[in-house]
Design brief:
The structure holds 2 protein chains of 2 kinds. Chain A contains no helices and 12 strands. Chain A is mainly beta. In chain A, a hairpin with a 4-residue loop joins strand 8 (64-68) and strand 9 (73-78). Chain A starts with a strand and ends with a strand. By secondary structure, chain B is mostly beta strands. Helix content of chain B is 0%, strand content 49%. Chain B contains no helices and 11 strands. In chain B, the strands form 2 sheets. In chain B, strands 2, 4, 5, 6, 9, 10 and 11 form a 7-stranded mixed sheet that branches. A 4-stranded antiparallel sheet of chain B has the order 1-3-8-7, with no helix packed on it. Chain B is globular. Classes of the chains: A mainly beta, B mainly beta. The interface between A and B is medium-sized, with 25 and 26 residues.
């Protein structure tokens, strides 16, 4: 069975500083990996995905994520955080031939001015 | 614009009552999903459907039922057997022809037991 761990419930950064939101996963075989963002009382929005190839994936709003197969990690990063980046972030994993994704418990990102 | 519409946005259920949450998509997606979100617990899969007239139980299907009679629609019924239904419910869809695609989510329905 697949699983996702987001080890930090909360990440706090100052505006303009780099941010990292961590994600590790467990799955049989090669996975698809995703990051989503959720604003209060809204559905999740897709940010980026890793399929294969380059380990650094670029997505929406200046976010990127680094895939590390040996560490089974897929950390979300942004070089310079904005206050508007404050939200709840979810990592998800889906095995290549599976129809459903498994989500982590989410990490609340707070960017302070 | 294509997307997923969930209704109602807020729903109140009395004890012992069944309620149905609506999910409609015009994205021509084959796969549809229902997740439940509770604070600090992330998203948990209730049911999913990869094709019309077929659906599978997720991790927490007890007390819930679904139907998939049309490609566009995947309603979720919360039955009286679900003892703790207060939560935020999210519907999602995915292009069944592309396994690498992410989900498109609706805006959610917040269900409260009164």
């Amino acid at each position: 069975a697949q699983s996702v761990a987001q080890p930090e419930d909360q990440v706090n950064v100052a505006e303009g500083n780099p941010l990292t939101v961590k994600c590790t996963y467990s799955v049989s075989g090669n996975p698809y990996l995703f990051w989503y963002v959720q604003y209060p009382n809204r559905g999740l929005q897709f940010l980026l995905k890793y399929i294969t190839g380059d380990n650094l994936v670029k997505g929406s709003y200046g976010f990127e994520a680094e895939f590390n197969k040996s560490q089974t990690s897929f950390h979300l990063k942004k070089p310079s955080a904005l206050v508007s980046d404050s939200a709840l972030y979810f990592c998800a994993v889906r095995p290549l031939l599976a129809g459903k994704s498994t989500f982590g418990d989410g990490t609340t990102l707070t960017v302070k001015p | 614009d294509g997307g997923i519409t969930q209704s109602p946005k807020y729903l109140f259920r009395k004890e012992g009552q069944n309620v149905t949450l609506s999910c409609e998509q015009n994205l021509n997606h084959d796969a549809m999903y229902w997740y439940r979100q509770d604070p600090g617990q992330g998203l948990r899969l209730i049911y999913y459907s990869q094709i019309v007239n077929d659906f599978q139980k997720g991790d927490i299907a007890e007390g819930y039922s679904v139907s998939r009679e049309k490609k566009e629609s995947f309603p979720l019924t919360v039955t009286s057997a679900q003892k703790n239904p207060t939560a935020f419910y999210l519907c999602a869809s995915r292009n069944g022809n592309s396994l690498s695609d992410g989900y498109t989510f609706g805006s959610g329905t917040r269900l409260t037991v009164v």
